[in-house]
Amino acid sequence: MNQTRSRFVTLEEAKNVAGALKESELVYHKSGQSQSLTPTIAITDFIVDGELYFKLLASYYYVSEKLQILVVETKDHNNDTVEFSEKIWEYNLDKKKYHHEKYLNGELTVSEYRDEGYDMPDKIAEFQDAKRFEESVEAQDTAAAACFLENPPFGVEPCCLFEGVEYNYCGSYCGVNRDAGGGAVVNTCDVCCFNHDNCLERGDDRCGCHADILDCLGRYSCPGDSTMGAGMRVKATNDGCYF
């Protein structure tokens, strides 16, 4: 059985488990007090037949109501970084909106204005599983992060569901003629999954299809995008694709 395992950790615990964490230039430059800020951190392990494939480290800095920064680092079983995502929500007084940016491996991929910033740590998508696992060990059976795994634990939803956003195409058993989903796409990341489904159904090169969806998820900012990307990397690895 494939599974995910998520838990909250301290910074020192994260370093003990995953080695040195990549430093975020965004945190350093935007917070103005990064040395004194303590992030909320959660680690999610992606496990296939008892073997650790990838781990996702999410560090969230709720600096203030007007500034939030999320850093997500994906590491392989050797603790080498395979993806590094940084997101910021910063309130713009003139526009009365939040300027939201996403950087993937240091490259700006999203820059837009949104009506709302990111939420308090106990309500964000990246901590959804860690929060539930803390409350009950049985929560493993319905882990949101497992939506992209083949043969997931019993009770996992066919379509990915992150903090109220239920996807129609993101998920191993989600989409047209699948266990659930289909219909209209719900956001840009759902478009990535829709295109991935079509790519596979056309019989295109599977590794190419997997590479395209990882690139697509990296270019947009949606609830659970990094988590879904890590799950997609598991599928790609099972298909003999290494990025």
TrEMBL record:
<dbReference type="InterPro" id="IPR033113">
    <property type="entry name" value="PLA2_histidine"/>
</dbReference>
<dbReference type="GO" id="GO:0005576">
    <property type="term" value="C:extracellular region"/>
</dbReference>
<dbReference type="InterPro" id="IPR036444">
    <property type="entry name" value="PLipase_A2_dom_sf"/>
</dbReference>
<dbReference type="GO" id="GO:0050482">
    <property type="term" value="P:arachidonate secretion"/>
</dbReference>
<keyword id="KW-0964">Secreted</keyword>
<dbReference type="GO" id="GO:0006644">
    <property type="term" value="P:phospholipid metabolic process"/>
</dbReference>
<dbReference type="GO" id="GO:0004623">
    <property type="term" value="F:phospholipase A2 activity"/>
</dbReference>
<protein>
    <submittedName>
        <fullName>Uncharacterized protein</fullName>
    </submittedName>
</protein>
